[in-house]
Amino acid sequence: MQIESQTTETTPVSVTPTPRNFFALTLGDLETLFKSSGKEKFRAQQIYKWIYDKNVTDPDQMSNLSKDFRIELKNMIRFDLPNVVKHLKSKDGTQKFLFDVGDGKTVESVVIPAEDRQTLCISSEVGCNMACKFCFTGKQKLQKRLTADQIVGQFLQVQRAMPEGHRLTNIVFMGMGEPLDNSDEVFKAIEILNSPWGTNFSRRRVTVSTSGIVPEMHKIWENKTRLAVSLNGYDDDSRTSIMPINKKYPLKDLLKACEVYAKETGERVTFEYVLLKGITDQLEHAEKLFHLTKHIPCKINIIPFNEHPGSGFERPSDSQVMKFQQLLIGKGAHVLLRRTMGRDIFAACGQLRSEFESHPQQMDTSNSKLIRTLHLKSNSLSSHT
Ligand code: SF4
User: Fold this and answer.
1) Residue with CA at minimum distance from ligand 1 atom 4
2) Average pLDDT in the 183-207 region?
3) pLDDT, tens digit, for every residue of 82-117?
4) Residue 108 designated active-site
5) What percentage of the chain has pLDDT greater than the value 90?
6) Is residue 321 a contact partner of residue 280, using CB atoms and an 8 Å limit?
7) How far apart are CA 17 and CA 381, in angstroms?
8) DSSP letter at 7?
C-alpha cells in the first residue's frame, strides 16, 4: 500500500497583542515597548510630553507624529483613565471623588485644601485586609489591588477638575487600602508621576502611610518618599487590640524601621495617633506615647476619632483632646492636631464608595438630600488614622 504524504496548509494566525494602558507605563517601559517594535527611543518622550504637558490623549491630535505611526500607536497603547462617577464638594472646600476602577468597584480620593497647599489623599486598594478596628475601610475585606494606571489616574483626573491656575501640591497615600500591601504598583505610580517627562511631581511631596508592614518599609526611603506610620497605640497591647498587624510586626520592629528611615533620609517620621475615648485618649497614654517615640525624630499627628455607624468607638471630648495635646507639647514633642474637614460629604474613607455600591440610584440625588437620608455623623477623611 502506498502511503501518500499529506500536507496540511495552515493559514498563519496573526495575534494582535492587547494594547497596554499608557498610564501604567514608566518612561523606561514605553521606551522598551517602542524599541521592541522597531521604533526610535525618543518617541517615548514625545508621547509623554503630549499626554502630561499638553493634556492630549488622542493620537490623531499628536501633530508631530506621522499618520502611520499614529495608527500603530492606537494598536499598541490605550489611554484609559478611571471615570469619575461622583464628585462632592464640602462647604469647607474639601472635595471627594469616586472613581470607577472596573469589576463594579469604586475607590475614593479626597482633596484637602489648606492655605498654602492642595493635598490629594489617594487610594491604593478597594477594601483592606489589615482590619484596623477603628477604620471604615478595614471592615471591607480586600477586593482589589489597584494598578499603577488607576493610581496615576486618580491624580490626573483630580488635577483636571481643579480650577484654572490651581495645582495639587502634595499626595498622601492615606486613602483606602494599605499601600505597602500593593507596593509594586504604588511605587511604579510614584515613578510615573515623578518623571520629568511626566507630571514631574516631587517625591518629597509624596507621603506613604503604612499600618506597619515592616519588611516593605525600606521601599519608602529607597524611593525617597515621606513616611507616615499609623501608630494608634502606646504599647504593644494597646496597639494589637485595635490593629491586628501589630501581632505580626510588633512595635520594637516597627520603631526600628522608623529609626532607619530618619537616619537614611534626615526627615522626621509622622506618627498618626487616633484618640479613642477611654481607649487611647488618657493622659497616662500620652505619657507612654511620648516615651515610645521620643528617641525618633518625629511629629505626632493626633486625630480625634471620627465616629461612623457601627464603629463601636467614641470621639473624646474637645477638652480631653486639648489636655492630651498639651501634655505632649509640654514634654517637647512636635504635635499637630488634625482638623476635622469634609463633614458633609461622606467623609469616613470608604463610606461614599460603600453607599454608592449599595444604593447607586440614590447617588443621583443632591448631596444634601443623600446626607440627610444617611444621618451621617462621621467626618474622617482618612483610613490611615
Ligand atoms: S487604617 Fe489603613 S491599613 Fe488599617 S484597615 Fe484602614 S485602610 Fe487598612
Assistant:
1) 132
2) 95
3) 999 999 999 888 999 999 999 999 999 999 999 899
4) yes
5) 73
6) no
7) 41
8) -
Local structure of residue 52 (DSSP, 8 states): I
Annotated catalytic residue, options 135, 258, 298, 349:
349
Say whether 261 sits in a helix, a strand or coil.
helix
Q: Whose CA is nearest to atom 2 of ligand 1?
A: 384
* CA 380 / ligand 1 centre spacing (Å): 13
Phi first, then psi: what are they for 198, rounded to 5°? -110, -130
In the structure, what pLDDT confidence band is assigned to residue 368 with cuts at 50, 70 and 90?
very low
Q: Which of 108, 185, 191, 272 is catalytic?
A: 108
What cell does 209 get?
502611610
**Collapsing DSSP states into helix, strand and coil, what is residue 70?**
helix
Does the beta carbon of 228 lie inside 6 Å of ligand 1?
Answer: no
Chain-wide mean pLDDT for the chain? Answer: 87
Q: Cα(325)–Cα(384) distance, rounded to whole angstroms?
A: 20
> Could you tell me the domains of the chain?
20-78 (1.10.150.530), 83-374 (3.20.20.70)
- Please state the pTM of the whole predicted model: 0.87
Specify the amino acid at residue 317.
S
Q: What was the pLDDT predicted at 348?
A: 60
